[in-house]
Design brief:
The chain is of the alpha/beta class. The chain has 13 helices and nine strands. The relative contact order is 0.13.
Length: 341
């Protein structure tokens, strides 16, 4: 995909509901989104816990139940792995910001996630003057709203509802991350809800490379994004992570490589601008012959295609590295003669 063109030390990733759809959770906006139904949208303001606390808790308990049953998908796992590899270095920083309240990033192993809109798996008192602290809560309340043990007011999920401000600490952490980032990636978000909609502009202002990963194109083009990748987050994020580490090793030589299970995945698709027929041929080659470390290319047609694949890789250092790893001496000599190297 060739998305990463230089060395990056400060990576910021913003995720929206689209990163969790593969885990069975619905998006909030657009066709089929939760807020498109007026019956459910009425429970998204703090007034709902005053007017109809039992109905509000029934709605939020249903969402809580869905979140508890959901399992992190490959997109969540790729971001967790990405963060772990970068944050183990003193000179690197990976910051994950999410608009989601489902807790799946944390369950995937991500640490220090900035949860802009709180967590549906925590509760707090609806009385702002109450001294009850936010607490983890996985109980489901379908028959009635729970009450605060301190002041007897209605409890509520610790999520940011409409007309409420983003928590001050989360807002401060986001600003700190954006001020120093050199790579900004937004994943599975419509890019229309403030303040997250303006994050890409802040990143662009400090000179960061900016990338949007989403299932659907933006309704109105945002020129602050350098690149827009359309597709499912659970498919694109593992590929992006693998490509990122390949490129970073190439540029710096001192970062950990992509994990073994994704190394081959990236190798097969690295920096390829192919027709559907060519891509299908490469997939067929992999399916037929299996892992490239364990086989030699016996079919002359496939063998020629693989040499052609190497030829379209732009980065010479990576190209030579691939050839030395995967080709025999005879194949090395033949392909070097073919491209005049």
């Amino acid at each position: 995909m060739n998305c990463f063109t230089r060395l990056y030390k400060r990576v910021v990733v913003l995720t929206g509901a689209g990163v969790s759809t593969a885990s069975g959770l619905p998006t909030y906006r657009g066709q089929g989104g939760l807020w498109s139904d007026p019956e459910t949208a009425r429970f998204t303001s703090p007034r709902a816990f005053v007017k109809d606390p039992d109905g509000a808790w029934k709605f939020w308990s249903t969402l809580r139940e869905h979140c508890l049953k959901a399992v992190p998908n490959p997109g969540h796992l790729a971001l967790s792995d990405w963060g772990r590899k970068l944050n183990c270095r003193e000179d690197r920083k990976f910051t994950l910001i999410t608009q989601n309240v489902d807790g799946l990033h944390e369950r995937a192993g991500s640490h220090d996630v900035i949860t802009m809109h709180g967590s549906i798996l925590h509760s707090r008192c609806s009385n702002d003057t109450c001294t009850l602290e936010v607490f983890q809560d996985r109980e489901l309340f379908f028959n009635g709203a729970p009450r605060c043990p301190e002041c007897k007011s209605v409890l509520r999920p610790d999520v940011v509802l409409f007309d409420e401000a983003i928590p001050a600490k989360a807002e401060w952490l986001v600003r700190q991350a954006l001020r120093s980032c050199d790579l900004f990636i937004a994943v599975g978000t419509s890019g229309t809800v403030s303040p997250a909609a303006g994050f890409v502009n802040s990143a662009k202002y400090v000179g960061a490379t900016t990338l949007l990963v989403n299932l659907e194109p933006m309704e109105s083009v945002n020129k602050a994004f350098d690149l827009e990748l359309l597709g499912k987050a659970e498919l694109l994020l593992p590929r992006l992570e693998a490509e990122f580490f390949y490129k970073q090793v190439m540029f710096s030589g001192d970062l950990p490589p992509a994990s073994t299970d994704r190394e081959e995945y990236a190798h097969q698709r690295f920096n390829m601008a192919l027709s559907p027929e060519e891509q299908a041929a490469r997939e067929a080659h992999t399916e037929l012959l299996g892992g490239l470390d364990s086989v030699r290319y016996a079919d002359p047609q496939f063998d020629a295609w693989v040499h052609r694949y190497y030829a379209v890789v732009c980065a010479q250092q990576y190209l030579n590295q691939c050839r030395r790893k995967y080709l025999t001496e005879a194949e090395l000599e033949a392909v070097s003669s073919d491209d005049g190297l």
